Amino acid sequence: MDSNIPRWLVLVLGILLIVMGIVLFFTPVANSIFFAYFMSALMLIFGGGEIIYYLCRHDKGISGWILADGIITVILGALLLFIPGATIPGMTILFAMWVLFTGVIRLSAAFAAKDRGSSDWGWILAAGILGILIGIWFMFDPLLTFISIGYILPLAFIVQGVSAIGVFLSTDKGSKEPA
Question: According to the model, what pLDDT value does residue 97 have?
């Protein structure tokens, strides 16, 4: 298997998240059932992509933080998908946990990338900080989050997409790997 496929997978996932974020800005009154299933599927795909990326590249010094983020994302996506009658506040809290955990992991990954000498670690750091702030906001104000989800959700998707692209950019085809 071509070793660049997992690297390109991260780029494609990042672009898809950004495109979906932009599309969602134009549909602020989304159906809550669609929201739940779509978010669950996206989290499962994104988390699965990170796990595949790690498994295909771990022998090249890639950090376990990407694996941890993938596992957490898959678990939270599966919880959303398989909890019967999940309420909107429950979905908001689980989504907030995902954004917050991913932000913390990206923050740690940024410093690991910096230690490895990556010049693009700042993008991962910025995405991590922004993810943490959005996740905290989601956690402490689920009602306002639900009311404004039509505009906050797209922003969170865009942040996650930019973060994935930051991981792609901090990876070169040689020996250096992102955190």
Answer: 82
